[in-house]
Amino acid sequence: MSNVCREVITLQLGHYSNFVGTHWWNLQDASLSYDPETPPSEIQSDVLFREGRTTGGHVTHTPRLIALDLKGSLRTLRQEGSLYDAGKDTSAVTWEGSLMKVKESPAQKNSFLEDLDRLDRGEILAEDDLSSSLQPQRSGALRLDTVNSQLARVQKGYRLEGSVKVWSDFLRIHLHPRTVSVIHQYNHDGEAHRLEAFGQGEALLQGQVLEQLEDKLHFFVEECDYLQGFQVFCDLADGFAGLGSKVTEMLRDSYGGRGILTWGMAPVSHPNSTPMKELYHVLNGALGAVHMADHSSFFCPLTLRGGLGRRPSAPTAFPHLNYDAHLWYHSSAVLALALDALTLPYRLKKDSVPMWQVADSLAVSGRKVVAAYGAVPVPMMHGGSLPDALSTCADALPWKPLSACPEAADGRCYGQWATLRGFEGQRLVSSLAPGTQPDSPLHGLHSGEDVLESYIRSFYPTSPLALQLVSTPSMLTPPFPQIFSQSLGAQGFLQSRSPPPGSRAPAVSSAPVMTSFQSGPAVGSWLSELHRGASALDIHRVAPSFLSQGPEMADYREALEELRLLGRCYRDDSSGVTHTSSEEEDD
């Protein structure tokens, strides 16, 4: 059964989730290759991609994806895409009354999207005088495929930071016509008709929105042979938290037994935010976390924000990244790169672990909220070994919080799943001559798995631990932003010498990444903080309109109580006895 393709359907709910998802799908796209000279990939792409045919008979591979967003969020992207019926006019409507024609200037495409269009038309290939054998071999998932190296010359100067307004501004793949759904009741831009409150999102899953979602789900589910489950990327700070709560509930009720891994996405900051909107973000996050955790196999918040409260600490910093935490195009790229490693266990060709098994190993005794951590990238010296790299991090783990949840200082953890990806070309063990004394205990071990396990157990000596090592790195082709420090070489490894002053460091084309899921007392502290932040607000006084479209006050109070109890699940010590102090009772 290990070689059977267990399909996964992805749902992206909300604008920031679509930012993260777009980078994530671009990474999947860049890692695919159909060159017979290329070694087989360790990753099974058909877990995420589906095969189809255009009306002209061309084979396509598109993401098994449903993406929901608001009116005005697509800009240059056609909702039905252009892959299967390019050029067809879908704007005609039937109407018996009078019509008013309003002409709007089309959104301007950035240089990257213009080059993709030129590639689709064959213009770039003609300019580069390439043979027909370099034409993209898949007209769906890969626009670039084997011409990546050719486009690298064209795309060398891409700097999209000033031109990315929405997620489709840097989408490099074709989508299936059934992928995108636009919610027309609310606007993406402007102050009017915004999807700001949890209750607004809950109320959306009915009528046309529900019918469209069910239709899309049935389409993707029915063509799966061994559906293992769903991964849900959902905005946590706005009304999509309410919609995501209803969607995960529907998935649980309709597809029982399948894995549902839900990721609550939150940017470091929101444009045009106000103190009232910040209050809404806290309330949405609290309600969304408790409801989506209840309906999912596990729930993992994913953010570079220093906390989900109104006064967060500084955003997560990485030693070898120079990214703008407040720029969605940057922060979503960092999260997507980490997510590419976090989701590997159930996407591998060999030794794949079904998503429900990953969840069951972490969500024990009702602890269905987990925290994520990542070393992006892993500080590995070019030409060095894994023991060398980890020995330099003997005092502190190299990964940083990806869930606004600092690690516990006491080394207690109820379960952990660690993944190391991208060490291709590096040595996993030391090359010691017979009789040579190893520099450290790690240098004396004989497999990469033993090295990584021994290292992590030096910090978490008694916690259950699962490991996954994958040599293939994440491929960082345009439009992934160049946010890496000049100390890194093209493969993302540290260089022994920095570039000379005034010279330009090579573009980083791949990166080693190490990630960890954890379930432990630190998650309980995070949940308790979330509960305190929401319950401290007198909602009738400071945000009277928040509950205008639901939930009812009784349901709201019940959800906060469930959040408090969920946090208490993480207070058991190693003997399984719950310690309760008077201070904890008052939380």
Automatic annotation (TrEMBL):
The keyword Calcium does not apply. Involved in the regulation of mitochondrial distribution and morphology. Required for mitochondrial fusion and mitochondrial network formation. Belongs to the misato family. Residues 163-348 form the DML1/Misato tubulin domain. Keywords: Cytoplasm, Mitochondrion. It holds the Pfam family Tubulin_3. Residues 6-118 form the Misato Segment II tubulin-like domain. The lineage of its organism: Eukaryota, Metazoa, Chordata, Craniata, Vertebrata. The keyword Mitochondrion applies. One of its GO terms (biological process) is mitochondrion organization. Its main location: cytoplasm. It is found in: Cytoplasm; Mitochondrion. One of its GO terms (cellular component) is mitochondrion. This is Protein misato homolog 1.
